[in-house]
């Protein structure tokens, strides 16, 4: 929900823009920090969810580390204030240039996704006379029970080293002169809401920890990745994820030795609710079968619905403003809003020249007119980071609650 003052502020701004609620972001970060500190767990923020500089600087102030999936994300994390001792670098296709950059930056750890990559990092480190700290990203074959487009921990996925290949990894580690083995890493998918999935992951982590220790390796870090989901259906009533229950699952099911640290890499859960994409209705097009609400924002500003059939709540926030007339109080003495208007079904679409440029079909909204402000909620994760210049669109603006 936006206050009338906030909606009035929006009315004077050029749309579309991302609106960041920095207070909600801070409350979320505080909740995560408190819940993880209880078990001495280490949290890294997954930069790829949102690398808006203001968001990054807010997050780094809470003492979290950073998880990067490209050389530029490593750079953005360090320049954004994260300590290099807390920066990790994952990704199935790290280029030599990126590896060299991360070696120079002396980051905490590479999360290595194949035997081939292990050899390359060793070679590049040797050339520089350095030792690279590495963890092995293992594909544990655990089903994340999430949308198949955002599942990463099954054998059919490209990520990580399959369990049957671990003997090769062990040999490669033994043969490498310029690698320091830190531990094992997992990331099985995103938008996971079923805690049973994380329990299954813990069982696999325990087995694999044992596998490595039995072969003489010392595991210092158990990195269980991210993936905690958020409630896209209730952005007003359930906008801080249940970090307590999440971390408790790992505390209850993970076997952690005294010399081991447990690391997490949360992206979505930290930032998703803190932003909405605000846009205006350009045209209302009434067809024979459909009514279209044509917005000034499209897949170039928020591609999640088009890319992985994601759901976002869509609100006509102009209709939430109190009606300014002498009929503005209803029989119960409550302030009437324009919401009392007729509800209509719309296909909410963008202006981009693609048929898939539709945020959602058959959205029930108060009857909407040109100029109305539309909020697409819970857009803080994998929103602004995926903005594209397709159709030579203007770059979407960002607006912050504290400015
Ligand atoms: C994307 C990613 C994350 C964060 O995932 P969320 O679902 O946003 O928490 C963590 N670790 C790795 C390796 C990733 O690629």
From TrEMBL:
Domain Orn/DAP/Arg decarboxylase 2 N-terminal per the UniProt entry, residue ranges: 32-272
Listed pathway(s): Amino-acid biosynthesis; L-lysine biosynthesis via DAP pathway; L-lysine from DL-2,6-diaminopimelate: step 1/1
Cofactors required: pyridoxal 5'-phosphate
Domain Orn/DAP/Arg decarboxylase 2 C-terminal: 18-380
Reactions that this protein is recorded to catalyse: meso-2,6-diaminopimelate + H(+) = L-lysine + CO2
Keywords of the record: Amino-acid biosynthesis, Decarboxylase, Lyase, Lysine biosynthesis, Pyridoxal phosphate
A GO molecular-function annotation: diaminopimelate decarboxylase activity
InterPro entries: Ala_racemase/Decarboxylase_C (IPR009006), DAP_deCOOHase_LysA (IPR002986), De-COase2_C (IPR022643), De-COase2_CS (IPR022657), De-COase2_N (IPR022644), De-COase2_pyr-phos_BS (IPR022653), Orn/DAP/Arg_de-COase (IPR000183), PLP-binding_barrel (IPR029066)
First-tier enzyme category under EC: lyase
Pfam family, one: Orn_Arg_deC_N
EC number: 4.1.1.20
Protein family (similarity comment): Belongs to the Orn/Lys/Arg decarboxylase class-II family.
Name by which UniProt lists this protein: Diaminopimelate decarboxylase
Encoding gene per record: lysA
């Amino acid at each position: 929900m936006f206050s009338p003052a906030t909606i009035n502020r929006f009315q004077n701004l050029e749309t579309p823009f991302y609106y960041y609620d920095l207070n909600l972001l801070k409350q979320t970060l505080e909740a995560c920090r408190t819940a993880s500190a209880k078990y001495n767990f280490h949290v890294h923020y997954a930069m790829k969810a949102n690398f808006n500089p203001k968001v990054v600087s807010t997050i780094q102030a809470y003492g979290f580390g950073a998880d990067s999936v490209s050389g530029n994300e490593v750079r953005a994390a360090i320049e954004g204030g994260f300590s290099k001792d807390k920066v990790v670098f994952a990704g199935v296709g790290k280029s030599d240039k990126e590896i060299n950059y991360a070696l120079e930056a002396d980051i905490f750890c590479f999360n290595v996704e194949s035997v081939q990559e292990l050899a390359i990092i060793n070679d590049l480190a040797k050339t520089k006379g350095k030792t690279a700290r590495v963890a092995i990203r293992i594909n544990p074959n655990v089903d994340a029970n999430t949308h198949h487009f955002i599942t990463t921990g099954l054998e059919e996925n490209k990520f990580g080293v399959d369990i049957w290949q671990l003997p090769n990894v062990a040999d490669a580690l033994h043969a490498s002169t310029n690698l320091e083995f830190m531990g094992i890493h997992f990331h099985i998918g995103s938008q996971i809401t079923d805690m049973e999935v994380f329990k299954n992951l813990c069982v696999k982590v325990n087995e694999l920890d044992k596998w490595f220790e039995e072969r003489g390796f010392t595991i210092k870090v158990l990195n269980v990745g991210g993936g905690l989901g958020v409630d896209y259906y209730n952005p007003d009533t359930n906008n801080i994820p249940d970090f307590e229950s999440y971390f408790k699952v790992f505390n209850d099911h993970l076997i952690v030795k005294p010399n081991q640290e447990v690391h997490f890499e949360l992206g979505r859960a930290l930032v998703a609710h803190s932003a909405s994409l605000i846009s205006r209705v350009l045209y209302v097009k009434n067809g024979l079968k459909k009514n279209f609400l044509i917005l000034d924002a499209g897949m170039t500003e928020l591609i999640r619905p088009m890319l992985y059939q994601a759901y976002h709540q869509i609100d006509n926030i102009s209709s939430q403003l109190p009606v300014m007339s002498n009929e503005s109080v209803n029989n119960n003495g409550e302030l009437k809003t324009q919401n009392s208007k007729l509800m209509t079904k719309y296909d909410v679409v963008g202006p981009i020249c693609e048929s898939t440029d539709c945020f959602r079909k058959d959205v029930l909204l108060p009857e909407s007119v040109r100029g109305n402000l539309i909020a697409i909620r819970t857009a803080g994760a994998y929103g602004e980071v995926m903005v594209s210049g397709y159709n030579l669109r203007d770059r979407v603006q960002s607006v912050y609650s504290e400015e």
